[in-house]
Each structure stands twice: as structure tokens, then as C-alpha cells.
Amino acid sequence: MALVNSDIINIKKRGAFILFEGCDKAGKSTQANKLFEYLRNNGHSVELLKFPDRKTKIGQIINAYLANEYELDDKAIHLLFSVNRWERMKAMKNLLLSGKTLIVDRYAYSGVSYSAAKGLDLNWCCSPDIGLLSPDVIFFMDLTAEEAEKRGGFGEERYEKKSLQEKVRKIFYMLKEKDSDKDSLWRILNANQSVELLHKRIVEYSLKLIEKCSQLPLKEDLWKATS
Ligand code: DGP
């Protein structure tokens, strides 16, 4: 059946899922905040989310674990980080479908990288997150552990140790390899450059992406095998 003008007006454009990933102190939150402010001030419908979401009940356990106030088995905490993402999925899906662009600070890629860096099997680590919403872009803020160590505050939380961060960075690159069939999903950004320069590149890319994604269906296929 042919579309009439009123149908075309009623087709809702979906928002883009823009993800920031990287090791600790790479500047993810700074860039996620700056992009959020830019888009909001320029008339875009946008929301900023952060994982782990420390406000939920699960998030409070994660917070205590990260602050070294609470001990948990590595596999148990891994699953809780994943639950913390699943508990936001329905709301994220509805926001994207309502046309809101989501800027997300950390996601399942951090989930797998940190747990696998502790020695858990990579495929096991991926499995609880299979089928989550897939991001439209991953801005990977790349910083070596030496450079991260020089930045303020490094060493305060559980994972902020140079040797672990080096492993985490390697596993992020392994996950990027796993996505090698997904054209331009990963944008590797050298985090050791001016905040404003990085922001400019991120804004330019995001504006094009938002336009492109508005025409595409949402993907709930994270790490699902493509046959
Ligand atoms: P942040 O609030 O972005 O500084 O993250 C807190 C710490 O938790 C950081 O060291 C990275 C780590 N982290 C974030 N997400 C996950 C996850 O899903 N699993 C594990 N094991 N660690 C995570």
C-alpha cells in the first residue's frame, strides 16, 4: 500500500546510540558530557546515561564493590554489571524509539574487558550481554596505562592499577577485532590530545551519524552471531 503524506509525517525518526568506551581516566565522561551539552544546546533531543548506574539497588552493590567495601566472586560481580545494563534496556529502547539520541558512558565492552583482564574467559564474559541493544558508534578513547597514571585520581578505585589497565586496553582491541565486519562501528580516538580538538571531531561525526541512524531500525543484537 502506498504511503500518503500524513503517514510520512507520522513516521518517528529514532535516536542514535552513541557510546564512549575506554580505560580509566581516558576522558570518556568529559567528552560524553561535552557532546551532551553541545547537542542539547543545538536543539537535539538527547539524554546522557552512565554505566554502571550506581543509583539502582544492583548499582549500589557494584559501587560498594568498586570502593573495596565489599568482596564478591569475579563471576558474580561480572553478572551484576550485566544485570545493571539489562535493567535499563527497556527504558533505553523506548527513549531511542521516541527519537532521543542516547550518549552512553561505558557499556558491555567495559564489562567484558575488565572481567577478562582479571582472567575470566572472554566468551563466557560476553554471554550475559548477548542481545543487548547495539550501539551505532563506539568512540574508543585510547590512552596508554602510563599516560592514564599521570592523570589525577588514578589509583582510588579497585581497577585503577597500571598492570590491569594494560590488560583491559588489549581486550578492548580484541573486542574491536570481533567487530571487524561492522563497518566504522569503532572510532579509535587518541585521548592524549586537546579536549577541544577531540570534541570537535566527535561532534562532526555524531551529527552525521544522528542523521543516518534516524532512517535505520534499532538493533537488539549485541554479539549475536551473524549467519
Ligand atoms: P567509572 O564509573 O566509569 O569510573 O567505572 C567504574 C569502574 O568500573 C572502572 O574501573 C571500570 C569498571 N567497570 C565499568 N563497567 C564494568 C563492567 O561492566 N564490568 C567490570 N568488571 N568492570 C566495569
Describe this structure in words.
- The structure is a single chain.
- The protein has 227 residues and is of the alpha/beta class.
- It has a single domain (17-213), classed as Rossmann fold (3-Layer(aba) Sandwich).
- The chain has nine helices and five strands, in the order αβαβααβααβααβα.
- It has helices at 5-10, 28-41, 57-66, 74-97, 108-117, 122-126, 145-150, 162-178, 195-213; strands at residues 17-22, 46-50, 101-105, 137-142, 186-190.
- The protein has a five-stranded parallel beta sheet, sandwiched between helices.
- α2 packs across α9 (195-213) and α3 (57-66) packs across α4 (74-97).
- The longest helix has 24 residues, at 74-97.
- It starts with a helix and ends in a 14-residue tail after the last helix.
- The model has no long low-confidence stretch (mean pLDDT 93).
- It binds 2'-deoxyguanosine-5'-monophosphate.
The portion of residues forming beta strands comes to 5-15%
Question: Which CATH C-level class is it?
Answer: Alpha Beta
Number of strands: 5
Fourth CATH level, the homologous superfamily: P-loop containing nucleotide triphosphate hydrolases
Reading the helices and strands in chain order gives HEHEHHEHHEHHEH
Domains (count): 1
Which structural class fits the helix and strand makeup? alpha/beta
Helix content: 40-55%
Keywords: ATP-binding, Kinase, Nucleotide biosynthesis, Nucleotide-binding, Transferase
Family: Belongs to the thymidylate kinase family.
Domain Thymidylate kinase-like: 20-202
Pathway: Pyrimidine metabolism; dTTP biosynthesis
